[in-house]
Write a structure and sequence with these properties.
Radius of gyration: 23 Å
Shape: elongated
Strand order of the largest sheet: 1-2-3-4-5-8-9-12
Number of strands: 12
Mean pLDDT: 75
Number of helices: 2
Helix content: 10-25%
Distance between the termini: 56 Å
Strand content: over 45%
């Protein structure tokens, strides 16, 4: 009988410990920080069909990788608003030539906490092109310097630190025209390719 009581007491302690840990973790996740912070990470561009582009670039996975760094604000907890202002440098491969672009991105995101540290988000993203270059040749004419695209993705938030993976695409193609080295032929390429974006964020 005494042995049975000891087992019951041990079981109660185990249950109480588990409930305490769950409550602590839930409280920590619920206290996801709000305010202003810094973010940075990597961008992976695709030309044309995204999965076809990934397949084509499998032998040279680094040739379409760029980076971004910027600031953001976060307002709210369960449902939150997250505006960002980000400097982005991208690199895309077109027929073994490199198209480089520097731009400002301004995503305006609305997020929803799903469970624990996991949230989903989405919203429009403004893009303003600062500079572009194709294999050493400056772009003569970009159809629109300012365009609007769409961001959506999933994030993990641990109080003041966050990690998110998002997909970006333009609402429409934004083409640029350039003249070849011979000064005769002209070519066109898209300055708003689809992207996968991996970011790390921190609220000080």
């Amino acid at each position: 009988m005494r042995h049975l009581k000891s087992k019951l007491n041990a079981s109660k302690k185990t249950v109480l410990l588990v409930l305490f840990l769950v409550s602590t973790l839930s409280y920590t996740y619920a206290q996801s920080a709000t305010g202003f912070g810094l973010k940075g990470g990597l961008n992976y561009n695709a030309n044309g069909d995204y999965f076809e582009s990934i397949s084509d670039n499998a032998q040279n996975p680094d040739r379409n990788i760029g980076y971004h760094i910027g600031v953001f604000g976060k307002i709210g907890n369960q449902i939150y608003f997250k505006p960002e202002l980000v400097y982005t440098s991208t690199k895309s491969d077109y027929n073994n030539d490199s198209f480089k672009m520097q731009k400002l991105d301004a995503p305006l995101l609305v997020g929803l906490k799903v469970i624990g540290p996991i949230s989903v988000f989405g919203g429009p993203s403004l893009q303003y092109i600062l500079d572009s270059e194709f294999d050493g040749i400056s772009i003569n004419d970009v159809e629109n310097d300012l365009t609007v695209g769409l961001n959506f993705g999933i994030g993990l938030n641990f109080n003041k630190v966050g990690i998110d993976l998002r997909y970006e695409r333009g609402f429409s193609e934004n083409e640029a025209t350039f003249i070849g080295n011979n000064g005769i032929g002209t070519s066109r390429l898209d300055t708003r390719p689809d992207q996968l974006i991996l970011s790390l964020s921190l609220i000080p």
